[in-house]
Amino acid sequence: MKIGIIGGTGSIGEGMAMRFSQHHTVLIGSRDVQKAGECATECTRKLADRKIPCELSGCLNQEAIDRSEIIILAIPYAYVAPTLKDLRGLEGNIVVSPVNPMVKADYVYYAPPPEGSAGLAIRKLLPPAARLCVAFNTIAAGRWRDLESPLEYSVPVCSDDEEAKQQVMRLAESIPGIEALDGGPLRASSMVETLTPLLITLGMRNNRKDMGMRFISPQGGGNKG
Amino acid sequence: MKIGIIGGTGSIGEGMAMRFSQHHTVLIGSRDVQKAGECATECTRKLADRKIPCELSGCLNQEAIDRSEIIILAIPYAYVAPTLKDLRGLEGNIVVSPVNPMVKADYVYYAPPPEGSAGLAIRKLLPPAARLCVAFNTIAAGRWRDLESPLEYSVPVCSDDEEAKQQVMRLAESIPGIEALDGGPLRASSMVETLTPLLITLGMRNNRKDMGMRFISPQGGGNKG
Prior knowledge:
homodimer
């Protein structure tokens, strides 16, 4: 698959690029084409140091959209609307939101927009033909970037487009360690987006870093790790 | 510790009673004293069949409160206010809410009251001196009752009373397999209560039963199962 990462020079975007480019063609998108190129070079070097081949290059966000089948919005919630405003051509594309609106106080809490979730708000910002999925919410930037460790995560995927959801679930499971789960319709995305502020709160309160989660089923039906 | 379970004859209450009574003195509370007694007898028999000793008896909800240090509200959210209205003497007690307000549609979603969570709404219903903790939210009734399997769960505990929180964390960790985590203040309980409707949705959509979750930390800091 061809994956375009909007905001791909950020910490989480760079980590995603290094993971996905081992199995797919990845375009790191940025508003700054030079920064995108430098980031792609640096990621390629890190992978080459570990003798891992990859397909990775940098370009403008718009070019990443024009040349990809799946677009990942690797940007904080506050930047989503201003970023999408300037971009075109998302009709028919699969758009993936790993975005979690949250606020840091004495703990970190989920702060969804009036639509009910970032996913539902982004739905309104996209052309109707864009195929939105919410996925990869809980994987911390540090875990994406830590190439020595497999990503032992359960990844729920929410969407109203069942075919797009299946494609994103396949994309998720192309990364070793990840188990993709059908997370239900886009309306269910508020529950998935809640996981990350909870994980950060638990990390803060229990002196853990980059916490993740694995869903478990009894009788060996799921993954007990 | 002396544990009183309000609504202890229900499916989840009975399961909790069988688990906790192996390590603590448990009173199964009910509005119907005969039903409470029968449930205690049945639970004791099930444990005796497995040669597991227990300390377990049945009584009215009010007596369970009067004779216990920790009170668990093992009742659906809709029954909490009418049940608490008739009960007295919760001042100074530790009260544990595993309650998750949720609605079943084509998926199951979190439906918190206007206060923001069941925990915050229950806080208003209790006397100010009651020491409320939100805990044990994600453990399905079927898992509590399946005595052959350890409860491999992470249990976040939310409270504004740090000492009560520590006691409930110790209570949780007295059950083999459970890892207790500080879940932050009571305001954070909405994120914890969200986990159960999400788990049920994931179970429905992915043909899994009684799904649970384990939080994981890299570098062996947490529990990878």
